[in-house]
Automatic annotation (TrEMBL):
<dbReference type="InterPro" id="IPR003439">
    <property type="entry name" value="ABC_transporter-like_ATP-bd"/>
</dbReference>
<dbReference type="GO" id="GO:0016887">
    <property type="term" value="F:ATP hydrolysis activity"/>
</dbReference>
<dbReference type="GO" id="GO:0043190">
    <property type="term" value="C:ATP-binding cassette (ABC) transporter complex"/>
</dbReference>
<dbReference type="GO" id="GO:0005524">
    <property type="term" value="F:ATP binding"/>
</dbReference>
<comment type="similarity">
    <text>Belongs to the ABC transporter superfamily.</text>
</comment>
<keyword id="KW-0813">Transport</keyword>
<keyword id="KW-0547">Nucleotide-binding</keyword>
<keyword id="KW-0472">Membrane</keyword>
<keyword id="KW-1003">Cell membrane</keyword>
<dbReference type="InterPro" id="IPR027417">
    <property type="entry name" value="P-loop_NTPase"/>
</dbReference>
<keyword id="KW-0067">ATP-binding</keyword>
<dbReference type="Pfam" id="PF00005">
    <property type="entry name" value="ABC_tran"/>
</dbReference>
<protein>
    <submittedName>
        <fullName>ATP-binding cassette domain-containing protein</fullName>
    </submittedName>
</protein>
<keyword id="KW-1278">Translocase</keyword>
<dbReference type="InterPro" id="IPR050095">
    <property type="entry name" value="ECF_ABC_transporter_ATP-bd"/>
</dbReference>
<feature type="domain" description="ABC transporter">
    <location>
        <begin position="22"/>
        <end position="107"/>
    </location>
</feature>
<dbReference type="InterPro" id="IPR015856">
    <property type="entry name" value="ABC_transpr_CbiO/EcfA_su"/>
</dbReference>
């Protein structure tokens, strides 16, 4: 099953500005690990923000487990999409990777033991 799918996604930060992402098509299968690499300004953070609904595409669609991303389902989608930034200073929660990985699981009320298992699996 496709965990995330981008279908012809384009996005720009300013209405008449250059596209940060243009006609992007890709999918990530459930259980697959993906690293997004590129130079500064190449669209990595934009891609991550589009995947979890922090940004909305100007064109195309983003789906998470078959559900089209939209305002009405952002909470549910964000339960399935997490982002860990390369630079700890950019982390929205903590400066320790384990704490960032645990953050989402803690917010949905998972038991501490399960959170520990998920951290071990992810890292």
């Amino acid at each position: 099953m496709k965990a995330i799918e981008f279908a012809d996604v384009s996005f720009r930060y300013e209405e008449e500005g250059p596209f940060a992402v243009r006609h992007l098509n890709f999918s990530v299968e459930e259980g697959e690990f993906v690293a997004v690499l590129g130079h500064n300004g190449s669209g990595k953070s934009t891609l991550a923000r589009l995947a979890n609904g922090l940004l909305t595409p100007d064109e195309g669609t983003v789906s998470v487990f078959g559900t089209l991303l939209g305002e009405k389902n952002l909470y549910e989608v964000r339960r399935n999409v997490g982002v860990v930034f390369q630079n700890p200073d950019h982390q929205p929660v903590a400066t320790i990777v384990e704490d960032d990985v645990a953050f989402g699981a803690e917010n949905v009320g998972l038991p501490r033991e399960e959170i520990g298992r998920r951290i071990d699996f992810a890292l």
